[in-house]
Structures are given as C-alpha cells and as structure tokens.
Amino acid sequence: MKKIYRWEPWFFLFFGIFHLHRIWALIDRESYASFWLGVMKSKGLIYFLLMGILSVLCILGIVTFFRERGKNYWWRWIYLCGGAYLLFDLFAIATGLDFWQKLLDKMFDTQSSYWNIIWGFFILLGGFVFVLGISLLIKDRKDRQSRS
Fold it and tell me: Crossing angle of helices 77-95/98-107, nearest 10°?
C-alpha cells in the first residue's frame, strides 16, 4: 500500500517557499544577486545551515524513493531528479567547480536579457512544488482520518 510519510508535504512546502523567495530577484535584481553571491562566496553560517538542510532533505527524499521502489507516487521522481541536481549543485558550489561558477556568474548577471526567464522559471517551479506540498498535506490528513 502506498503511504505518504508525515515529512513529505513539508519537504515540498519548504522547497516551494525556497524557490518562491526568488520573486525578490524580479523586484530588485541588484540586492538579490549581491545577497546570494555573497552567501555562496563567503560560505558562512547561512551557507552551511542552508546547505545542510537542503542536503538532508534531498538525501531523505532519494532514500525514500528507493525504499518505496515499486509503490512510489509519481511525485517521488522529484526526489530523485531534483535531489540529484541539487546535491550536485551544492557540491559544485562547495568545491568551487570552475564551470559551475561561470554558470552561476551568468545566472546572477543582473544585466542579462535572460534574467526574468531564469528566475521566473524558478518561481514557477516553486509555485508548483508549494501547491504539491499543500495537496499532499490535505491528502495525508484525509488518509489518516479515514484510517482512524
């Protein structure tokens, strides 16, 4: 039987909010880019706290995907694909991979004609996973009520 773990809706709600904060990038390009480039380059407390939370959530999701093999919901593929991407992203930033740093520099180029497309995509992604988190929260609560 398929089961939604209690943490799963919160996983998507967290990632949704994390991506939705990028609305800031559309409002004030300079301060958004300055803040995140500063966080990534300084590798201070915010960086390690965020990196730790994101890593743990991605690993938990990937483990769940493989543990529930054969009875996964469609959205658990997000754990595998999105988690693998994010873990690579965090690794590349932490180790300073040159090609990744060049990509980030282009993504955070406030003069780029692609700025709104890049950050708009992340905002749409955030909206999608946030709504998914809400729907999983509702489904999980209904399932728990029907079992009691």
Answer: 100
- CB of 119 closer than 8 Å to CB of 26: yes
Secondary structure class of 112 (helix, strand, coil): coil
- What is the pTM for the complete model shown? 0.90
Interval 98-139: pLDDT, tens: 999 999 999 999 999 999 999 999 999 999 999 999 999 999
Backbone angles phi, psi at 73, to 5 degrees: -80, 160
Query: Per this entry, what is the length of the chain?
Result: 148
Cα 104 to Cα 36: distance, rounded to the nearest angstrom: 10
Q: Give the span between the Cα atoms of 93 and 102, in whole angstroms.
A: 11
What is the per-residue DSSP string for 52-79? HHHHHHHHHHHHHHHHTTTS--GGGHHH
Q: Are 4 and 127 in contact (CB under 8 A)?
A: no
Q: Which of 92, 39, 74, 82 is nearest to 57 (CA)?
A: 82
How many whole angstroms separate alpha carbon 6 and alpha carbon 56?
A: 16
